[in-house]
Amino acid sequence: MTTTAHTEEKILFTQGNIACAEGALYAGCNFFGGYPITPSTEVAEHMAEELPRRNGAFIQMEDEIASLGAVIGAALAGAKAMTATSGPGFSLMQELIGYACIAEVPCVIVNVMRGGPSTGLPTSPAQSDLLQAKWGTHGDHPTIALVPSSVEEMFTETVRAFNLSEYFRTPVIVLGDEIIGHMREKFRVPRSGEIEVIDRKVPDGDGICRLPYRADGKHPACLPNFGTSRFHVTGLNHDESGFPTMDPSIVQDSNARILDKVYHQRELIDKVDMRYCEDAEILFVSVGSAARAAEEVVEEYRRKGVKAGLFRPITLWPFPKKEFIPCAERAKTIVVPEMNLGQLRTVVERFARSEKILPVNLVSGEPLDPDFIVATIEKSKR
Amino acid sequence: MKYEIRFSGSGGQGVITASVILGAAAALHDGKNVIQSQSYGPEARGGATKADVIISDAKIRYPKARHIDYLVSLTQKAAVKFIKTLKKGGVVIIDSDFVDLPDSPDHRIYRLPMTSSSIAKFNRTTTLNVIALGAFAEVAGLVSADAVKKAVLDNSPAGFEEMNIASLDMGRELARAAKKN
Amino acid sequence: MFDYSAYLRNEKLPHIWCPGCGHGIILKSLIRAIAKTGWDKDDIVLVSGIGCASRLPGYVDCNTLHTAHGRALAFATGVKLAKPKFHVIVVSGDGDALAIGGNHFIHACRRNIDISLIIFNNGIYGMTGGQYSPTTPQGDKAATAPHGHIEPDFDVAALAKGAGATFVARGTSYHVPQLDDYIYQAFMHKGFSVVEVVEACYTTHGRKQKTKYKSNLDMMKWQKDRAVPLAKSREMKPEELAGKFVTGILHEVERPEYADRYAGLVTSLKGGDK
């Protein structure tokens, strides 16, 4: 199963969710398994339209658990595989996200966030899963989560999600939100080759690998696809051959290894959009659509001569602390606008004194707008 | 310059489509910075739907409309709900067959008989959204006529091109007639 | 003498199953059926969920995938659709396939995807210590039914047929030559095939039924006494069949297979519109 890559550039005026699907196709995604859920469904609909035209596979499964199960199965058979969902579906996927982490199966999970808990507000925007993305599944595991804030970034970050996933052999999460997913902007689908596409490293030569979980120095272990090496994949703790083990030293080391392979190579993962951070006294930390409101405020403040800056982690997990700490130290006030009740703030608090931090939280289902940020700042001064 | 346009009406009237066509015209054919967005509840038909387009020469950061310059309303419910979001000096375009608003020094109102004109010419109202789009394009003059026409054709199902262009022209005609008054 | 070692990961033995467990009997039957197909081991993907039966793939020399509880068919569906040339076999216990995995089970039947599902039906959750499952006989005692089980059980074969499986067989761990044939026929069938194997767990289930079974042999005898071959069942009155179960290939029809249908869709779009 192969897919036809793009060769022509295209200019589109389209939704973030469609850009996400286009990014997946650009990266060579040839398997999509999903379940309908607002506000992510356009991703599945676009893949259902396009994949069979490109010799890829699309299947609508019976629920979100089955969707991620099928995605992991397809990835082990050699596919570049993806699913897309929203809050409730993302909750259902958590167990298998952990499976993909311990079994080191590359796959991409797009979560177009909406309000919660439970059914919440299906058609309204929120950023309710910033922490679920990090801590949702049980056990220690690495997390890579990317947060686009424009239609174009829905494309580029989905491509990057596939690249990181295939390189690190771990699930990668794209956290869109209802605003970014549904709004339309113009963007350009680049010609193939313009953006790097990383493919899975498979064993050299005859492709046979008897130790699929043996890491090669800093590089993650080399995963053969089913069909060559007759290896074993399990969600149990396992040794380098992939078979279950309860040997304490092997369990200790392998649990640490799946974290270290990601966290020891942050230079390959970190991505931050920093505006005026070098001299910012009032620093805004925000992601996704909320960051666009924050950027508007930053520009307004700069026009008035206020030294404001924006720190926008595009890679949210692992949190880009190396870049953040100096900005946080310089700032006198750190404003954290987000469409939840303080999820990003808990991260900022790890690196900055809490008395500096001004949370701006909106969970009404309305978009967090610049006026609300300014009003919250003004109120805090009184 | 930056303009915010809000199309509003009842679910199923095509107000989102009208906003997408306008957005595509300005973004793809006139080279402007554009963001289109919509908000809706659980109903696919009925309710009060709005779809917004922001057209700007500069980069658009915050993607949602905040200070509406032009409000197009196809139902009374939507008109009453969204007139409050119109900024002072803004322009309202309504289907006068179904909608009326009191005159106000704060905004100019174009009352256009869209439904009755559509029935008179086409014997149906399926392209009411395109008529409204044509009216807006004529009143505002923000997007080139050529761009709007191209975008309408890009978004027309096969066999409906002619009717859509005729509807676009009808909207322009109604607006021109109202401008003279 | 059949050489099992050619299909086993011999270094992974001995297996974890208790003395008297039926799983080993089914494993050998499964291997004989695989051998009879002549399939290349590299082309076989053996998938399982969680539970005693789900440890089986670890012992077999092919591509093996031990997934999460209940989810084997979901993973297997992804494998099969991504690479239809693979022969995909799922082994699953009654709790794994029918309780936590019940939704995936009925939808795999409905899709008629070319996967063979072998259900190891011992009527109990063995690995966790004998709690009642969807097929525990009513009245039996279980760790979570200390006063006797009050729920009715599933008729697995009827469920599979009703949900759209195109091959349904029922065998036992007592009638081994017949089981070999059912599994082989299931492998040869194009479409979703289900083989329910009635077997027993003496350790966690049999021992709790104080008067019913004195040993695993009594549980094997129970299988022998209760199983009625399909042909014979047709001559029996409903009251004679009460308390018994019918064995054999119970349902076999042809219906377009899912991966084939998908391939047809892909072909139809080539050179089509757009």
Structure summarized in a few sentences:
The complex is a heterotrimer of chains A (382), B (181) and C (274). Chain A is of the alpha/beta class and 382 residues long.
Descriptive account of the structure:
The complex is a heterotrimer of chains A (382), B (181) and C (274). Chain A is an alpha/beta fold and 382 residues long. Chain A has 2 domains: 10-189, Rossmann fold; 273-381, Rossmann fold (3-Layer(aba) Sandwich). Chain A is built from 12 helices and 15 strands. Chain A has helices spanning 16-26, 41-50, 64-76, 87-102, 130-135, 151-168, 178-182, 248-263, 288-303, 321-330, 343-351, 370-381, and strands at residues 10-15, 31-34, 57-60, 81-85, 107-113, 144-146, 171-177, 184-189, 232-234, 272-275, 282-285, 308-313, 315-317, 333-338, 357-361. Chain A has a 7-stranded mixed β-sheet, with helices on both faces. In chain A, strands 10-12-11-14-15 form a 5-stranded mixed β-sheet, with helices on both faces. In chain A, strands 1-8 form a two-stranded antiparallel sheet. In chain A, α4 (87-102) links the parallel β4 (81-85) and β5 (107-113). In chain A, α1 crosses α2 (41-50) and α1 (16-26) packs parallel to α6 (151-168). Chain B has 181 residues and is of the alpha/beta class. Chain B has a 6-stranded mixed β-sheet, with helices on both faces. In chain B, a hairpin with a 6-residue loop joins β2 (33-39) and β3. In chain B, α1 (15-29) packs across α5 and α4 packs across α6. The radius of gyration of chain B is 15 Å and the shape is globular. In chain C, strands 2-1-3-4-6-5-8-7 form an 8-stranded mixed β-sheet, with helices on both faces. In chain C, 35% of the residues lie in helices and 17% in strands. Chain C is α/β, with parallel strands linked by helices and 274 residues long. In chain C, β5 (167-172), α6 and β6 (193-198) form a beta-alpha-beta unit. The mean pLDDT of chain C is 96. Chain C has one domain: Rossmann fold (3-Layer(aba) Sandwich). Chains A and C meet through α3, α4 and β9 of A and β2, α2, α4 and α10 of C.
Going by CATH, what is the homologous superfamily of chain C?
Answer: Thiamin diphosphate (ThDP)-binding fold, Pyr/PP domains
Oligomer: heterotrimer
Q: Report the total helices of chain C.
A: 10
Number of domains of chain B: 1
> Largest sheet of chain C at a glance?
8 strands, mixed
Which geometry of chain C do the CA atoms define? globular
User: Rg of chain B, please?
Assistant: 15 Å
CATH class of chain B: Alpha Beta
**Helix count from the secondary structure assignment of chain B:** 6
Within the largest sheet of chain B, what's the order of strands?
2-3-1-4-5-6
Biggest sheet statistics of chain B: 6 strands, mixed
What are the low-pLDDT stretches of chain B, counting only 5+ consecutive residues below 50?
none
CATH superfamily membership of chain B? Pyruvate-ferredoxin oxidoreductase, PFOR, domain III
Average of per-residue pLDDT values of chain B: 95
Strand content of chain C: 15-25%
Topology, number of strands of chain C: 8
- Show unreliable segments of chain C: none
SSE series of chain B: EHEEEHEEHHHH
Strand order within the widest sheet of chain C?
2-1-3-4-6-5-8-7
> What would you call the structural class of chain B?
alpha/beta
General shape of chain B: globular
